[in-house]
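Supplementary Methods S3. Input chains for the assembly prediction are listed below.
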Amino acid sequence: MADEPTDPLAASKTHRPEGESLNSFQILLLLSVFVIATCGLIYELIAGTLASYLLGDSVTQFSTIIGAYLFAMGIGSWLSKYLDGDLLRWFIRIEILVGIVGGFSAPLLFVLFEYVASFRVVLYGLVGLTGILVGLEIPLLMRILEHQLSFKDLVSRVFTVDYIGALLASVIFPLVLVPQLGLIRTALFFGLLNVLVAAFVLYKFPQTRPYRTAQGMLIGFTILGLLAGFALAERVMTYTESVALQDKVIYSQSTPYQRIVLTSNAREMRLYLNGNLQFSSADEYRYHEALVHPAMQANPRARRVLVLGGGDGLAVRELLKYPALRTIRLVDLDPGMTQLFRQNELLLKLNKRSLLSPKVDVVNADAYTWIRQDTARYDVVVVDFPDPSNYSIGKLYSTAFYRELDRVLAPGGVVVVQSTSPYVARRAFWCIAHTLQAVGLRTFPYHVHVPSFGEWGYVLASRTTERTGWPSPNRLNLPAGLRYVSPLTLRDMTTFAPDMAEVPTEVNRLNNQALVQYFEDEWSAVP
Amino acid sequence: MKPNRRTFLTQTALGVAALATAPLLPGCRTAQAIPGQTLGPNHRAGHWLRGPLPDLTHTAPAETHSAEVVIVGGGIAGLSARRWLAKAGITDVLLLELEEKTGGNSAAGQNSVSAYPWGAHYLPIPDIRNRELLDFLAEAGSITGYNQAGLPLYNEYHLCHDPEERLFINGHWQEGLVPEIGVPTRDRDQIRRFFAEIETLRQAVGTDGRDAFAIPLDHSSADARYRNLDMQSFADYLTQKGFTSPYLRWYLNYCCQDDYGISLEQTSAWAGLHYFAGRKGRAANAPGSAVLTWPEGNAFLADQLRQQAETPTCTNTLAFSLEQTETGVRVLARDLARNRTVAINARTAILATPAFITRRLLGKAAPAAAPQPLTHTPWVVANLTVDALPQGPGVPLCWDNVVYGTDSVGYISANHQHLHDSPQRVITFYKPLTGHTSAQVSEARKRAYGTTREEWITEILAELETAHPSISQHVQEIDIWVWGHGMAAPAVGALWHSNRTVQSQPIGHSIYFAHTDYSGISIFEEAFYSGIRSAQAILANRQSTAL
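Predicted structure tokens for the full assembly:
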């Protein structure tokens, strides 16, 4: 922004011969058309992409957004005839407006998605407004150029540049912009371009001198706003994880360890940790009954239980169905998580206040560090860690860790490990079983169907030297009121269809982390 | 000039814009703003020893001690000798160490995030014929047992966890340090051929029936076919064998810098090949290429060596003179903490000090053989505590992380062996100040001592920024350690065509030597065995005099 006391343009104007001035004037304005055309199509693409992100059904979203946008451009073109007087001034104003509306469209839509009831109204309102403003641009420019060129040349040049700009936009949008900048930054960036066109016209054309200061200030502040938005784009994204979640967010919190988000709809509540589904209240009972009851039936004399992970208290809820249990120790890394499940009324209803039971002792610590120091012995150990999706979680599925588990196991004790999906991640599942075997444990792999997860696997393990094993059907003593685990389902769980049957795998050790590799390969193949 | 309203507003606007965009600009944080300190071996005291001595020899010592054996130097060699003597039942041993802690190049530090190394930080699993080393590792808890085939079972907590190594090349972090991404087929063929050749050399046996390349290296074959490789540079050797690939040569240069602190052109071909072909580790539960490592690096091993003997160690004690007496030796040392001189009369002394210190200590008693000048490359090591490590595409953080084409040898993640994850971590950055001539080396040493902490930080962050954009904003603390004399470098001819073995011959029955300077390769195993050898020589002499 020039703020010199003397106007350099005034000086340069006197040096410029008449004919050349006209030429560069044209070229500059045509260049503006090019930028404007690119920006215009980008806003349209952003709105379409955003709508299909947020609302799903991309064919409908794209088609209605494009339709609405083009129609709004039509309105803009029609309205342009009411703009008279200083056309350059109008043009500058409109460019600034397009920059503001178009530039902030994506961040605004992301933020508003969570907070407004009728999101579609906002979406189409914004699309309409952007369309109208973009629709004004070309007719205005053509009128500005009206007396500079013959009509034939004017139409030919303006539309040529316009369509080339559109081509550029449609190519760089999916290939460069979305992957490199993301939607929010792309929108802000093109908003910036629009404003820069305004600034450029303002300072290049001597006619604008009377209002240069006022418009210049406006442009300055808009650029500032857009730059600030650019810097904060990352925060806006994390603020709006509901992009991926279809339902209403009823609770969200960032702890030092993870981002906890709870959503709900008419049918169910869902818990997401760092964007990964932990459970759906509609079918979590299947997962947690299957996690706890086979182990408890395998060791009916159990008195002391250790739960690793499982800060939601849902596995503990199942454990508390055995009145003979004396103590349940739950070790979960994140105090934010266990606190939430001890305080939130909805969640207390779901876990039946399990974490508030006097039998339950909650320890917030890193499970690995904690178990290496633990000297107690347990009859049942329930391992409910996140899936081995990275190397630090992979350590909790290693021979070294399983040796620690074996050490804390009381005579006749059993361990059960949630073991990801044997259907999706077949090698990962069997790798966990083989790793448990490698430290001298006898394994009993089993699986259940949890609709919101799909086919899910577990491995029950006991010492090879002891008789404890998979619960025998005639000695079952299941608590009343179970909705999934029954003598019959217990029998079926251990049968693996050929598409999930055992495959040879490596053993997961700290120094090879074979499991993380399997897990990554197999889950990344899922679309 | 009185600013009018317009300039005021525009300037304010620009100021706000600058503030709003500041987080976008990398490297805005000034080096002075990052807390931390500069550390290093007690080089002032060391140089005091090299310079004209203050006339302490004539002042009467405040105290006189006596011991059967005095060990000067508490690095790995000294500690290993002390341990061996203790195991043999010799309890009247006194070790003198200049620094506050024993351990030498295996120094370490610690903060609230992690322990971290200041120097040596890993040990490749040894050849199973290195019985003494295996026994030590078993005692240290790094070996938990043996399988039926007699292969050691290593403690999984001490084996380097996966993922081990990655290289930043062509904008991408690839797995492993041998360049792969974007490497043309011709280069790949050369790389394959090189490693095939190494495999042959690893198995090779000389005419005397000994391994061509062994650890400790004095166990290697005397076959001229192999030993003559010491007379040419690794670079020449590679060219001669048709290994011209810049990728392969970069990698091998990196290896020479990493292990020896010198370049491909300076390194003896024998030493360059020994780096690979000397590794013959075997384990029941790990591949032969596995390494043992700890958050504190080899300080773990140094502490284990120290704890496996109970004889006294005097730290902060600078031995400055040694003379032979009728009954053995007399050592004069400066107790730096209490600022007084002490004398130690002993039957024998083990000088577990670098060769240049040893010569200084011995004065006239030094062996007549002209000392071969040994290159000791200066090193700079930085420990950075970061709250995040932003990175480009590819493999996530590994234990060893190297950036292709840079001067440093990369950094290791000190938190790697931790069992829990935390966003805060300590990374240890290593940079050898390689010089091609001895003049360049002393120039580099002057630079090492003359460079300010701020200058190092700027240099190190600039290098890290290439692979970790905006890391500067995530650095919470940087400590710098300058090693003036990093370690002995096996330059051309230094191993088999010098007087290195002559220099380590005991003087009479009273002065023995133990240090990696006498083996020419500064690795834990050499120090460990050189300590044992000196202890064994004392024990043998003791036995023969007793008879």
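Chain A touches chain B at residues 1, 3, 213, 217, 220-221, 223-224, 227-228, 230-231, 256, 333, 366, 368-369, 372, 390-393, 395, 398-400, 509-513, 516 (CB under 8 Å). DSSP finds 17 helices and eleven strands in chain A.
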